[in-house]
Amino acid sequence: FSVWWREGKVPLPDYTQRRVTWWDHKPKLPFDLQVMSRSKDIHKIFDEKFLYRHQLTKARNEKRKERRAEWAEERQKQKEARLQAQKERHQKALGAVERAGCGRLIGNSTGFVSRGILAQRQAKDSASPP
């Protein structure tokens, strides 16, 4: 199958979509079945040491997952705070430029825009609530 064979088509039903996905990506077996499918000539199927190590690994991975989620949330908050501070600095700088009356020096020039278009823009800006 090509990668885009369903592009633009009606979505498949869930069962059919899962079957198509299984073509390339088989879902993992539950751990109990994975353990039972190991070779009994090499491994003990219910090896206590192996099961204990797996339990520890699973707990460690859960902790990592929780820490990563917490850190992602904290990072998102930091990013929002950074963007907010940047917006405030930008608004403060634009206010200072307007007060000084030198907006055209930094590219805030209206250019060759007719007065009618400027009036329309001002009317639209004053009509829309911030």
Can you put this structure into words, describing what you see?
It is a single chain. 64% of the residues lie in helices and 0% in strands. By secondary structure, the chain is mainly α. It has a domain of 69 residues. The longest helix is centred in the middle third of the chain and has 53 residues. The protein is elongated, with a radius of gyration of 31 Å.
Short note summarizing the structure:
Residues 60-88 are annotated as: Disordered. The protein contains four helices and no strands.
Task: Furnish the topology, listing elements before pairings.
Blueprint lengths: L13 H11 L6 H6 L11 H53 L14 H13 L3
Q: What are its keywords?
A:
4 helices; single chain
- Give the overall silhouette: elongated
- What gap, in angstroms, lies between the N and C termini? 51 Å
Order of helices and strands: HHHH
The proportion of residues in beta strands is under 5%
Main sheet characteristics: none
> Radius of gyration in whole Å, from Cα?
31 Å
Point out poorly predicted stretches: none
